Amino acid sequence: MKVAVLGAGSWGTTVATLACGRNKTLLWARDPEVAREVNEDHANSSYLAGFALPTSLRATADLEEAVCDADVLIVGVPSHGFRTVLDDARVYVRPWIPVVSLTKGLEQGTLLRMTQIINELLPGHPAAALTGPNLAREIMAGQAAASVIATEDLTVAAALQAVLRRGLFRIYTNHDVIGCEVGGALKNVIAIATGMAQGVGVGDNTRAAVVTRGLAELTRLGVAMGGEPATFAGLAGMGDLIATCISPHSRNRYVGEQLGLGRPLDEILAEMNMVAEGVKTSVTVMQLGDRYDVAMPICEEIHKVVTGVIKPADAYRGLAMPAGHEAEPG
Asked: Are 23 and 93 in contact (CB under 8 A)?
């Protein structure tokens, strides 16, 4: 197999590293200097400092070169650039090859999932999503991890599983594309909430409550959108949520923690060289909640903090309110 990975951030580079163990893999970097560093120094110091990359992994800043011979196309760019990059690449994409999204986000404005954008721009190509509790630095360090390849065609899923599985990186298949993508996107908002709890200093009990109630919240919306309840109890739901909410490597948890410490959002984002998808998703999730008539109380509070309506400490005022039945929102 010839594999093309678009996006040389931490996760795109990690997936390219996994793929090149068994397949000829070409990593596309927007920045020619990143491509040069991968090829000559076998490193990506901007996103994976301290990790040596395989000498067999090659990179390019030429989109046509990256895509034209690929048997599998993997797209790992942030949600706000996903459509543009895929649109630019599609003239070079060979017919019928599968296209895999690594992006855990939703398109602003359209509210589309990434596989929906793939289907729109590249009809006839099997669209899939790779998602789960996958922190890039831990996988690069050789630690065990599990992920899900989600696509409606399980034959395609099995083929992609073989392409991407390596060492202790274990991949399961799942037909519930909606549930897997929604879980991956919405957990980022809950991670901001738990990070904010850390920054404000409200305690581990509170964080556990936010994670648990957050899972219930994103499950309600995901099921309303067509996902299956069991998916949200699995790797793409609870698994990804736990990793993103507790790990010091989590960008979204970091944003929340810094907000809780009183720092302005613009300042926090300006110092980051990677995207925290939960910031944009906090807006999108409220639009989805309105569309599907699903109450999203935790996400609503985070949306208010991110947009400057309330302060982080105010987001936890609801804890003093009487609670209803556990199966209900709130």
From this structure: no
Annotated catalytic residue 187: yes
The CATH class given to the 178-320 domain equals: mainly alpha
- For 132-216, strand residue ranges (E) read 145-150, 169-174
Q: Which residues of the chain form CATH 1.10.1040.10?
A: 178-320
User: Which listed residue (2, 24, 104, 187) is catalytic?
Assistant: 187
The pLDDT tens digits along the chain (330 residues) read: 999 999 999 999 999 999 999 999 999 999 999 999 999 999 999 999 999 999 999 999 999 999 999 999 999 999 999 999 999 999 999 999 999 999 999 999 999 999 999 999 999 999 999 999 999 999 999 999 999 999 999 999 999 999 999 889 999 999 999 999 999 999 999 999 999 998 988 888 988 999 999 999 999 999 999 999 999 999 999 999 999 999 988 999 999 999 999 999 999 999 988 788 889 999 999 999 999 999 999 999 999 999 999 998 888 776 655 577 777 777
10 Å Cβ neighbour count for 307? 12
Residue 54: DSSP 8-state: P
